Amino acid sequence: MTFQKLLRKGITTCTIALASAxxxxxxxxxxxxxxxxxxGAHISPSMxxxxxxxxxxxxxxxxxxELVKNRSFEFPMPMMGWDEKELNGADAxxxxxxxxxxxxxxxxxxxxxxxxxxxxxxLTNEGFRGMGLTKDESYNFSIMAHAVEGDVxxxxxxxxxxxxxxxxxxxxxxxxxWNTYRxxxxxxxxxxxxxxxxxxxxxxxxxxxxxxxxxxxxxxxRPNGLRADLVQKLADLHPGFVRxxxxxxxxxxxxxxxxxxxxxxxxIAERQLIMNRWNVEFSYxxxxxxxxxxxxxxxxxxxxxxxxxxTALPILNCGMACQYNSAExxxxxxxxxxxxxxxxxxxxxxxxxxxKWGGLRASLGHPAPFNLKMVGIGNEQWxxxxxxxxxxxxAAMKQKHPEIKLVASAGPGPDxxxxxxxxxxxxxxxxxxxxxxxxxxxxxFLNNAARYDNYDRKVSKVFAGEYAAHIxxxxxxxxxxxxxxxxxxxxxxxxxxxxLERNADMVQLASYAPLLAHVDAWQWRPDxxxxxxxxxxxxxxxxxxxxxxxxxxxxxIPALADGKVLAGQDSLYCSATVDSVNNRIxxxxxxxxxxxxxxxxxxxxxxxxxxxxxxxxxATMNKLAFNSIDNPDVVKPVSxxxxxxxxxxxxxxxxxxxxxxxxxx
Length: 665
Description:
Layout: H1 4-10, E1 29-34, E2 48-51, E3 82-87, E4 92-98, E5 108-114, E6 120-125, E7 131-133, E8 138-159, E9 165-170, E10 179-186, E11 191-215, H2 228-236, E12 241-244, H3 248-251, E13 274-275, E14 291-292, H4 298-307, E15 311-316, H5 336-350, H6 356-363, E16 374-377, H7 383-400, E17 405-409, H8 417-428, E18 433-440, H9 442-447, E19 461-469, H10 487-502, E20 507-512, E21 516-518, E22 529-531, E23 536-538, H11 540-549, E24 555-557, E25 559-561, E26 564-565, E27 572-579, E28 584-591, E29 597-602, E30 612-619, E31 638-643, E32 647-652, E33 656-663
Parallel strand pairs: 1-29, 2-12, 2-20, 12-15, 15-16, 16-17, 17-18, 18-19, 19-20, 21-22
Antiparallel strand pairs: 1-25, 3-6, 4-5, 5-11, 6-11, 7-11, 8-9, 8-10, 8-11, 13-14, 22-23, 24-27, 25-26, 27-28, 28-33, 29-32, 30-31, 30-33
C-alpha cells in the first residue's frame, strides 16, 4: 500500500462532465477482426487474484468473525472496548493482572471480586463499531476462567442499541483451575450495533481471560471461523490467488511492529497481539482501537485459499520496516532470522508431517500439504538496501527450495528513478516476478492500456500486485464511505486490464487493492468490497474484476482494428481469448467514450461457425455512480443471450464494459 504523498504525486483530477450519448448512426463502424485460429500467449490459471491486507478493519472486525474487541485485555489500555458497572447494590471490583514474565504472548487476565452476595457486576463489550447480531441466529460465547474462591456465577446477554436484551444464556458453574467454559444463545431481534454483557453474580473471586463471541454461522460452519458473507464474495470472484497478509502490514512502522507469521499460528490464546500500523497512519483517520489479534493467521489464510480454489501468495518481511515511516533495517549480518522464517514457511506449507513446521500444520488439522508455489520477499521496498537483502533471500531460497517462485518489489510506484533502478537490477537477478503497483487517476489507467505491449519478454515477468483508480476528494462528495468506488474509476481499470490480458505472457498475476473496508472504520479508499456489521456490498470495481476473473480463457488471441490492438483508439479497448477447456471464445470490449459505438466483429479465423453468444455488460452514463450498502445495485452486470454470426454487428453503449462469450465446437 502506498501512502498519501504518493497519491498526491500520481493522481490528477478526473473530468466529471456527464454528456448525453450520441447516435451510433452518426459515427463510423469500427471493424474488429478476431483471429481465433491464431492462439498466442498462454494465460496463467492464477492470473486474476485478490490482495488481502488488514486495513480498514478487514481482519479483526471484518473477515475474522470474532465480535468481542480486546477479548484478552491485551490492548495497551487494557479496558479499551470494555465498560463496567455495578447493579442492584453489588459491591465488586475488577483488577487487570500482567504476568508478562511468565507469559509474553498473553500476559494479561482480569480478576473479578464479588464482595457480597448481592446484585450483579456487568462487563460490557462494545464490539468493533458495535456488534452485528441477527434475529434467529445463534451465537457461541466462550471464556477462560479460574475459580479462586467462593461461588461466582456467570451469565451472558446480548443487547441492542437501546440496551434491550435480545439474547442470553448462563454458563456452568466455574470450578477449579483454568478451564474454558462455553454457552450459546439465539437472538430474538436484529441489531446492527449491539453489545455484549458479561454478568457476574454471587460472592467470591474469579479470574477471566479470552472472552469471545462468534456467530455459529461462519464460512463452512467452522467454529471461531470467518464471516460467511465476506468469504462468499471472495469465492464468487473465483480468484486465481490470494496475496496475504498485505502490504504495509508486512513491513510495520518499525521492525518490532512487522508481521511475523510464526506468531500467528498455533493456539489462538497464545497469538501475541500487536498494534495495527493503520492505527496511527493517517491523522485524519486515526483508529486508536485498531490492533491485530491474529485470530486470522497464516494457517487460516492457507485454509481460505484452499477453500476458494486459489493459490497462496504470502509476502514476508525482508528485514526492512516501512521506508515511509522509520526506514529501519536489520543489519545484513542479522538477516538470518528473516531468511529462516521464509524457509520455515515453506516447510509449514509443504513439509512432511515429520518435520517441525509440517508437524505443526498437521496438529492444526491439515496433514496434507498446502502446495505453496510462490513467496514474496518484502513489500514496496526500494534502493540498494532492498537489493542487498533480496539477494540473500534469493540465494537461500533457490538453494533449498528452487521450486518456489520469488516475487520481488519494484517500489511503491509504476515509474520514476526508484522503479527504473529496481526493475533493471531485478531483471539482472532473474527475479521470477516483479511486483508493480499503481494508484493513479482514471486518466492514467486509460493512457497505460498499452504499457506492457513492448516489455522485454526475455526477462522477469510482472505481478500487477496493487492497482486501483483513484478520484480526488473534490470530484466526489463524501455522502457515503463507498463514494470513491465510482463507475468511472472501475471502467478505467477495465480498460487497463484488457492490456494486462493481452500481455498475459508478460503479466502473470494481477490484483486490485485493497480488498475490504468497514464503512465505519476505514483508513483508505477506494476498496473492492465494503461492509458494515451485518451486510456487505460489491463495488463497480468488484464487478469489473469478476468479469475478467470468471472469463479469462486459456490463451490470448488477436483482436485487431486496422491491424492494430485496440488500446484507446476511438476510446475503445479490447482483448480476446480462447478457452480451450470450456470451448468458448471470449471478447472483452470497453467503451470509455460518452457516445455509443457501432462495432462489427469479424471472426476471420472461422475456427467454427458461431450461432449464439452471451453478452454481459456494465453500463451507466453517470460516471460518479457507486454502490452503497443502502443501494447495492446501482451499478452491476446484466447478461443476455443473443444470436451470433461470424460477421456480427453490435451497438456498444457509452461508458460500458462488455464481455461476449461465444461457445464453439
